[in-house]
Design goal:
The chain is of the alpha/beta class. It folds into two domains: 143 residues, Rossmann fold (3-Layer(aba) Sandwich); 155 residues, Aspartate/ornithine carbamoyltransferase (Rossmann fold, 3-Layer(aba) Sandwich), CATH 3.40.50.1370. It is 41% helix and 15% strand. It has a five-stranded parallel beta sheet with strand order 7-6-5-8-9, with helices on one face. Strands 2-1-3-4 form a four-stranded parallel beta sheet, sandwiched between helices. Helix 6 links the parallel strand 5 and strand 6. The radius of gyration is 19 Å and the shape is globular. The C terminus is likely disordered.
Length: 310
């Protein structure tokens, strides 16, 4: 395995291997000295053309804790801002002898295209509205740590599904692990062609959050991505919160064992209330912690000797 571009590139066993390795990587976070020699001498470029807090910082921490040399680049800080093509920029960086580029780009498919132009390993850290594979892996890891084997578990993914790259990766990952998935959104935020997609990949679609919540093992709330909207997706923020927000009232509808996740950043008071975000059932901070461990595991499998033969 040289690249991580899409969850679809991974088998169920490979997903399980990454999560199993992340368990030992998670132990590093609990040490007083958080350092492994695993990737000493390796150079990793965090190449982010879009803003990010969790993904960028967790990949950087993951690389540093594994003793890799990590360098952060942004689109504004490279020759792309001077008019140089993406192809020439990444080929220039690749020619410096780096081992990996972790790429976030606003265009769907950009990391896959970069992988064809370069010799180093490429990790998709989010491309447009397409995929975010490392987020799906950390979400599955977090859910598995609380719920056990996800085979047969019922996961509801709720919110702005049309604009979400997290949806696509999580749906592929959860279905690969045997989970039953229900997508919940207003009709205007349900992806086009969802009916044929559901028939192919065997998941459910609902427009009624109250009807779904009593039967879930986990609910994954997705951010309303207002920066990608040109208006008309829902009348007001208040109406969206009333119909599709995870409120204190809806929290009471969920089984006591059920858990809440959110990939962040959260719009408190819109898709999730403060009551739900801070409830004991919420795994939001667990996801952040898991993000470093899972991304350490990804770097290990792609760059270490064992990972290169996986």
């Amino acid at each position: 395995m040289k690249h991580l571009l899409s969850i679809a590139d991974l088998s169920r066993d490979e997903i399980g291997e990454i999560m199993d390795t992340a368990i030992s990587m998670h132990d590093v976070q609990r040490r007083q000295v958080k350092k492994l020699p695993t990737l000493r001498g390796r150079t990793i470029i965090n190449f982010f053309f879009e803003d990010s807090t969790r993904t960028r910082s967790s990949f950087e921490i993951a690389g540093k804790w594994m003793s890799a040399d990590t360098i952060n680049l942004t689109g504004k800080g490279t020759s792309v801002s001077k008019g140089e093509s993406l192809r020439d920029t990444v080929k220039t960086v690749d020619a410096m002898g780096v081992d990996m580029m972790i790429v976030r780009h606003m265009a769907s498919g950009a990391p896959a295209q970069i992988a064809q132009w370069t010799n180093c390993s490429i990790v998709n850290a989010g491309d447009g509205m397409h995929e975010h594979p490392s987020q799906a892996l950390l979400d599955a890891y977090t859910l598995r740590s609380k719920l056990g084997d996800l085979d047969g578990k019922h996961i509801a993914i709720v919110g702005d599904l049309t604009h979400s790259r997290v949806l696509r990766s999580n749906l592929l990952c959860l279905r690969a692990l045997g989970a039953n998935v229900t997508l919940v959104a207003p009709p205007t935020l349900m992806p086009s062609g969802i009916g044929s997609w559901a028939a192919t990949d065997s998941f459910e679609v609902s427009y009624d959050l109250d009807a779904v919540l009593p039967h879930v093992d986990a609910v994954m709330m997705l951010r309303v991505q207002r920066e990608r909207m040109s208006g008309g997706y829902f009348p007001t923020a208040r109406e969206y919160a009333v119909r599709y927000g995870l409120t204190a009232r809806r929290l009471a509808l969920m089984p006591r064992h059920a858990v809440i996740t959110h990939p962040g950043p959260m719009n408190r008071g819109l898709e999730i209330s403060a009551d739900a975000a801070d409830d004991a059932q919420s795994l939001v901070l667990d996801q952040v912690s898991a993000g470093v461990a899972v991304r350490m595991s990804i770097l290990f499998h792609l760059l270490s000797g064992e990972g290169s033969s996986a």
